[in-house]
Fold this sequence. Notes:
This protein has a single domain (5-155), classed as NusB-like (N-utilizing Substance Protein B Homolog, Chain A), CATH 1.10.940. 63% of the residues lie in helices and 0% in strands. The protein has helices at 5-23, 27-39, 63-75, 77-87, 99-113, 120-134, 137-154. 34% of the residues are buried.
Amino acid sequence: MSQRPRTASRLAAVQALFQGEQSQESPETVIEQFIRPRLDARPAGTARAAETYEDGRIPDAQVPLFSQIVRTASAQQEALDRLLTEALPEDWPLARLDPVLRALLRAGAAELWLQDGPPARVVINEYLDVAHGFFEDEAARLANGVLNRIARGLRPAEFAAPSSAA
């Protein structure tokens, strides 16, 4: 994900939402825990500048986007969870999902919730890239279907067929 700061921001948001759910810490606490040790970009030549994803760092992430996703997902969690529940297959309740997949879906739904964000298709593709880093194809397909359904509900104009001139 080097040179893809928006994707890195989304990856960090998924990890932060997972951590927040597991630790039951406030979004602000989790954001602070991520910014300093994981997202804090250091100048070239310092020891941390060479650290990578394998070291637990996400050096390319954009802190404002990361923070916005985490805050939105947390503030709107009840509404987003309703959307996710409606978009999931009946035999896959939200509580049954892998906690990382649940965090990914909440992050994606939160970003789709933001009406002034990037186009829905871009958001979905970005979260699919993140999903492939964590899961096999089946979970990524589930994420694709769920986020696509939520996007069509939240941003129907982006999916409307162009009107043909008669």
